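Sat 14:20. Reprocessing the chain from the morning session after the first attempt stalled halfway. Input below, unchanged.
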Amino acid sequence: MSSDYLLIALIVAGFGLSGVYFGAGYVSWHRYQAAERKKELSLRELHANRLRDENDVPGSSTVQVVDRVPEAHRTAEQLKEVV
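Finished this time. Tokens:
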């Protein structure tokens, strides 16, 4: 009868150790996934900043042209272009 209790105790202990092992694996996987998401987010932000900086380069299609010639110094042709 004592051997039956010993075998039942070993089986219950095996289930307990298996549960702890799978729980630790899940926690490790969850931390790994969180680290990957954090890394991807930072890389996405770097890429967005890099694209934003590229669009600020003079000569790109988004740059506004500003006429800095005062009206007193403009020629007649330049004044016609403004109107």
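Helices lie at 2-55, 76-82.
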